[in-house]
Amino acid sequence: xxxxxxxxxxxxxxxxxxLTHFVTWSTCSFSYAVGMTERHIFDMxxxxxxxxxxxxxxxxxxxxxxxxxxxxPMDKLLLARKYAERDLxxxxxxxxxxxxxxxxxxxxxxYEAKLFSTHSKSRIRVGYVSYDFRNHPLAHLMQSVxxxxxxxxxxxxxxxxSETDNSPYRMRIEKDSEHFIDISKLTDHAExxxxxxxxxxxxxxxxxxxxxxxxxxxxxxxxAPIQISYMGFCSTMGAKYIHYLVSDKAVIPExxxxxxxxxxxxxxxSYFVNDYMQSMKFVYDGSVRPTRADYGIPEGTFVYANxxxxxxxxxxxxxxxxxxxxxxxxxxxxxxRFPPEGEANIRKEAxxxxxxxxxxxxxxxxxxxxxxxxxxxxxxxLDTPQCxxxxxxxxxLWSGLPMVTLPGKYLASRVATxxxxxxxxxxxxxxxxxxxxxxxxxxxIGDPGTRGELKSLPERIAVLxxxxxxxxxxxxxxxxxxxxxxxxxxxxVANWEKGLKExxxxxxxxxxxxxxxxx
Length: 519
Hints:
Strand order of the largest sheet: 3-2-1-4-5-6-7-13
Largest sheet: 8 strands, parallel
Distance between the termini: 47 Å
Structural class: alpha/beta
Helix content: 40-55%
């Protein structure tokens, strides 16, 4: 899809440069044959985004792609706003055989949104809209949420933008939802919005945003009075018709709210819901425990790991990783072939930095259960600072694997900080790249502990490579995953319902504002 774009001629040279950069970075090729520096290409990208906006053109850089770029947060907001405007225009145009959608005209010139208090109903009607009610990370994380809702106070609707894949995740969500409506065949956005509106939804939640399969045009038509962005897209939507973004204070501190178009709903603990306590208990109880030999991981080595898609690895972070490997003898870096094209590039980039390819270890992506059960085989997860491990961050922590993470300013670069905070393990959060590197090295080759100190640990942890600090941290994580808020799905749903009630209460008085959900 992207290769023809790389051949476009003037005056789109800057677009070509930006796309070339995205493609090469996505496969971890950090050397630019065109003789440009990384900073030069980013400057081209930003300048061209500004140029396209001035010309009234939707920028060629998509909001999702911008998540991995070290762009100024205000540029990311500007970019998102233009895509929100595009989706609104698309929604207003309606179907092929009419100039404007009848529903759009109705919504924007006659319809006044009404909440449950003006209806003859006693429960708050909550609608979730997603393309990912299927075998997808979002469904892996949220599969039990819909069944945990208090149906005496909430009426739950799931509107699916995709047909069934007959996966257990889809079947579970269909079974647990009070109402599951497949609207995937409704290609006209106005028709889909009309269906949602017909159910009298009070709060409508966008679980996609600017990700594959999302239909933000439905939300642009505002079929519900309160519309919220959650989980799918980890940044601002830049849309006036998306009223709230769900987060927590570790991920979006109050001083960073200026970066977001939406008002913020601050969840207590972590905003990032997950289902490990229900669906991955076999990892906790040790009933499934693979060995390093099962994957060909050399015994006796200290294993650093990162299980994100390779596009999240930026050149600065890669430089730090290679420096860590050089400082820790007999250590390796475990990555996924995701995408497979990235492996050869990473090996070349490592060689340029003086790291032999024997220090790099790749495995293929695997099913959710297999992947989570093997994460603990590593010794330390090195998070990607530009765009953190989100679902993969939960994976490693549930497996008992410690991590080191460096937060940035915007949401996508702070999710792991929120996860570590909700797990009550703030010692995994660092403030600078220097501290990141020093922590990763010390965890591996720091004080190994005395025989007496090691005897106080479970034997399976005591015999692992690494420092005493790392081993104690692993023991702490294994305990905290069952007691700290991070993996408590029922607690998260209970708090989420408090947030939904508060959003409704605020709407009746002052429409929308930032607020904290009480614990």
